[in-house]
């Protein structure tokens, strides 16, 4: 029992911390009727609905199949790496950065081994992780804290995308430059006799004991893929307030029960619970005048720098929830918490997915991965902060 609790605590550290903070704050501000106003239900409901739909797509193997088809067209080292980075960069805009990394990093590790590029794994996965983080920051549904800020600020989807577009574009250009400089056009000989179906079989479904509901499954998606596509459109309409949030969630749950009820058990419900716990903590601390005045003063002075700095220590989702409780400077908060996803390994919790995938396969490369990841991330963070200083000189 103690071992299980320790494993759970290791996996859900952020939720555990949020829960402790929420409970502790209840002793400072005893529960009352005002607690009912703390939870931002729009964010919670929309987050859960999107997570269910994306999980459904994962379980029919949609993203793996798309990846294998694209990789079947890559015949050089540079082309292969650009394709892998593109998979996380573009998919993260719609399925979130953590899902993009969970899906494509293990896939990439296997593909790189097939291409005899094992020694490049740390750098390629680092670039893929950055790709996911800078791609996800473009859209309100690309990551959880963007969805929250989109709802809290009342900004339109186009407005949020307009704020982050220069940074995503600059990061994409830098990713291409780094890839072209580091990786040459050497032909991948081991791919000559391999097509996309071979990649799919050898990388995505190495087991002969496949089940129709596994993420690695090939060919079992069929009509479910299209049904989930319709649900995804409904979720997008819900994010923009066109479809009622409860109707949206109800449709998603009912349809998923009919299509694949096991999906509902695979969703990571600790993420919305983490949000709820932070909502309680921040709601209570806002009612403590001394704490509120100090926090509001700090956030108001340097929102971008504070967003980036706090993210390096507690990651950007908790930073977003914390800082947004004491400032309505939405534009610099959006920029700061998104750029803050680069830097340290924990700046974006999604980045831990990549670290665990690499070190699980190559146990002796923990130090090399951390060094590579940190160095490359600092490069990107410095460049994007320089861009922010030009675009938002008063927000830094």
Describe this protein's structure.
By secondary structure, the chain is mostly helical. The chain has one domain (35-203, 220-391). 72% of the residues lie in helices and 0% in strands. It has helices at residues 2-11, 13-28, 41-59, 62-71, 77-95, 97-114, 121-136, 144-153, 157-182, 196-204, 222-239, 245-260, 263-266, 270-285, 289-301, 303-314, 316-323, 330-339, 351-361, 366-391. The termini are far apart.
Portion of residues within helices:
over 70%
Q: What is the terminal separation in angstroms?
A: 48 Å
Approximately how much beta-strand content do the residues carry?
under 5%
Taking pLDDT < 50 over at least 5 consecutive residues as the criterion, the unreliable ranges are 204-220
Note the run of SSEs as H and E: HHHHHHHHHHHHHHHHHHHH
Mean pLDDT across residues: 86
Question: What shape does the CA trace take?
Answer: globular
Backbone structural class: mainly alpha
Number of strands: 0
The number of distinct helices, counting runs of at least 4 residues, comes to: 20
State Rg.
21 Å
Biggest pleated-sheet summary: none
Count of domains? 1
């Amino acid at each position: 029992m103690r071992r299980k609790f320790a494993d759970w605590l290791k996996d859900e550290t952020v939720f555990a911390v949020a829960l402790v903070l929420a409970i502790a704050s209840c002793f400072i501000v005893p529960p009352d009727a005002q607690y009912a106003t703390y939870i931002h239900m729009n964010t919670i409901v929309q987050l859960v609905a999107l997570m269910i739909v994306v999980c459904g797509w994962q379980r029919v193997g949609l993203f793996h199949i798309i990846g294998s088809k694209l990789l079947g067209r890559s015949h050089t080292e540079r082309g292969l790496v650009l394709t892998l980075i593109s998979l996380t960069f573009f998919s993260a805009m719609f399925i979130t950065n953590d899902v993009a990394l969970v899906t494509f990093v293990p896939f990439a590790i296997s593909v790189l081994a097939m291409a005899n590029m094992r020694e490049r794994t740390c750098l390629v996965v680092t670039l893929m992780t950055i790709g996911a983080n800078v791609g996800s920051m473009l859209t309100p549904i690309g990551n959880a804290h963007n969805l929250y800020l989109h709802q809290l600020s009342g900004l339109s989807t186009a407005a949020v995308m307009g704020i982050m577009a220069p940074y995503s574009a600059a990061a994409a250009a830098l990713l291409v430059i780094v890839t072209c400089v580091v990786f040459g056009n050497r032909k991948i000989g081991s791919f000559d006799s391999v097509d996309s179906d071979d990649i799919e079989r050898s990388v995505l479904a190495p087991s002969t004991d496949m089940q129709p509901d596994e993420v690695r499954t090939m060919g079992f998606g069929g009509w479910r893929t299209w049904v989930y596509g319709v649900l995804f459109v409904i979720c997008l309409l819900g994010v923009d307030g066109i479809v009622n949030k409860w109707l949206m969630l109800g449709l998603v749950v009912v349809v998923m029960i009919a299509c694949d009820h096991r999906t509902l058990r695979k969703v990571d419900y600790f993420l919305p619970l983490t949000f709820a716990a932070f909502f309680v903590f921040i709601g209570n601390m806002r009612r403590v005048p001394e704490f509120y005045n100090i926090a509001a003063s700090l956030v108001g002075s340097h929102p971008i720098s504070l967003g980036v700095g706090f993210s390096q220590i507690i990651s950007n989702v908790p930073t977003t929830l914390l800082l947004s409780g004491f400032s309505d400077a939405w534009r610099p908060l959006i920029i700061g918490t998104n750029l803050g996803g680069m830097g340290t390994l924990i700046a974006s919790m999604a980045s831990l997915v990549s670290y665990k995938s690499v070190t699980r396969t190559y146990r002796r490369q923990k130090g090399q991965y951390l060094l590579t990841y940190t160095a490359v991330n600092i490069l990107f963070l410095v460049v994007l902060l320089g861009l922010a200083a030009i675009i938002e000189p008063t927000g830094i």
